[in-house]
Amino acid sequence: MEFSFKETLLYVENLSVAYDGNVIIKDISLTEKDVVRSGVNATGQVIAIVGRSGRGKSTFFRALTGLVPLHTGKILIKDFESNDPAAAKEAKEGDIGLVNQKYTLFRHKTVLQTLKYALRKSTLSETDKDKKIKEYIHKWGLENCADKYPNELSGGQRQRTAIIEQLFSSDKFIVLDEPFSGLDVGNIEEVKQSFDLLCTLSEYNTVIFSTHDIELALRLAQSVYVIGYPTINGDKKDYGTIIAKYDLREMGLAWKDYCEKHDKLYDEIVHQMMNS
Ligand SMILES: Nc1ncnc2c1ncn2[C@@H]1O[C@H](COP(=O)(O)OP(=O)(O)OP(=O)(O)O)[C@@H](O)[C@H]1O
Ligand SMILES: [Mg+2]
Predict the structure, then answer these.
(1) CATH class of 3-95+173-183+209-274
(2) By Cβ atoms counted within 10 A, which residue in 78, 199, 203, 242 is the most buried?
């Protein structure tokens, strides 16, 4: 499949994050560009972050979404308001939406109220907002939940509400921390479909997710990053960093059914993780 890289959407340079003076992640640098494919109208980006427990995936996501201060480094995203395609701006809280592992929602808002609130800045008319909310509630199987509060929802229902809420309120970038954990096969399929939907809505839409399911990462993502403890000059460090990056587009493995080549890469990633 022919494709080409366009302007940079996300640029992370020399990022580190510390809690109480303890450096948790360090030397994180990455560049993700817009991609266009011949014959495909919109190709959003799907990026997977894998790594063993405690290596700093969630911490990295908190940095991306502005929830923890950066110890060093910077995070830039494309400035969609500028006419210059190369214009970038520093990512602020709210620019990149986060769906966390706890699926945090407003305690005193029903599903319907939450989604209405998420669309408050949208330029859609009130009628179109209501239509959009109805459509999503239907697609995500939340009809019986529209008037329920978070404490009346199952984990999966809370998660789906949180995903739609973040899709509605943030612009182009959405980070999902382990969106597939605790879901049944049907829900996993729905989340996959939502990634597809996002990618066809705008070529700039960029989904970044973490998972412990490497096969799912290889099935869904075009870029896969492995976060782990690096070994430098024989010395294993105790902070997380990017120890490997795989661009499935360049490897000819993106936008394809899972095959033997993916399986080989799967083994390589497991090996990387075991040593980090
Ligand atoms: N608020 C905090 N204060 C101090 N240390 C923290 C805090 N949050 C996380 N940590 C520590 O930072 C390290 C990385 O945690 P993080 O949650 O980012 O890992 P993770 O890769 O997301 O793990 P998992 O796969 O289990 O979700 C861990 O050692 C954890 O104990
Ligand atoms: Mg985590």
Answers:
(1) alpha beta
(2) 78
